[in-house]
Amino acid sequence: MARIPVNSSNIASVGYDAATSSLQIEFLNGKVYEYYEVPESEFDGLVNAGSPGGYFHANIKNIYSYAEI
């Protein structure tokens, strides 16, 4: 899935696949995680957040199941 860069001190890029409701997040340390059953509105919120890292911690981390890919 294609990812787009975001302006964050922790996150390098994010991508979303609407067909599978999967969100990919690439962190600046090079690790990539895929989160499952994520509504597209969460992706939109993450991309448009003033602080993508803050949005991630408040709305995605520890809420959706995930795997490192």
From TrEMBL:
Q: Which InterPro entries match?
A: KTSC_dom
> Boundaries of each KTSC domain copy?
7-64
Q: What is this protein called?
A: KTSC domain-containing protein
- Origin species: Pseudomonas poae
